[in-house]
Design brief:
Distance between the termini: 30 Å
Largest sheet: 7 strands, mixed
Number of strands: 9
Helix content: 10-25%
Oligomer: single chain
Number of helices: 4
Length: 160
């Protein structure tokens, strides 16, 4: 499709593309401190049904968010909300603005959690770890710009 480099969370299905693992991350739920102050307390994933959840439509989970208890038991919670988008940055901005709660890869939230602009919720309910990958067609890294970008992203991922 004329793309030299794509970034993906999770495993690719069979493909002729080359995958370079950049870092490991995990899925988590995050909200802004202002959202948590202005809305009902939330301490269990099941309470998500009572909150405005911001839905990423470009992934596998949609409105059914998976969780895993410390004993390994898996369950999911059906969520709903007033904002659905396939653009993660739009949803992150909405979380920062106090508009709701989001489920996504920790890569999206780490910086904001460290800066106390977001709070990671349900840390006792881990969801599987997943890889973050650079994906590219054979020969793409011969293009200097693509190689430099992949090197830059690889270096930044080590800081996460």
């Amino acid at each position: 499709q004329g793309i030299d480099l794509a970034l993906r969370v999770g495993q690719l299905k069979d493909s002729e593309l080359i995958c370079k693992k950049l870092t490991q991350c995990h899925y988590q739920v995050a909200a802004s401190p202002s959202y948590l102050t202005e809305n009902d307390e939330i301490s269990q994933p099941e309470q998500l049904t009572e909150h405005n959840c911001l839905i990423y439509t470009g992934g596998a989970f949609g409105t059914r968010w998976p969780f895993r208890q410390s004993d390994g038991k898996r369950f999911s919670v059906k969520v709903s909300g007033n904002l659905h988008s396939n653009e993660p940055r739009l949803l992150v901005d909405a979380v920062l603005a106090g508009q709701g709660i989001m489920f996504g890869p920790s890569l999206l939230f780490n910086r904001f959690v460290k800066q106390e602009q977001m709070v990671a919720l349900f840390e006792d309910y881990s969801v599987q770890d997943v890889g973050f990958y650079g994906v590219y067609p054979k020969g793409a890294m011969q293009v200097k710009k693509a190689r430099l970008l992949l090197d830059f992203i690889t270096e930044r991922c080590q800081e996460l």
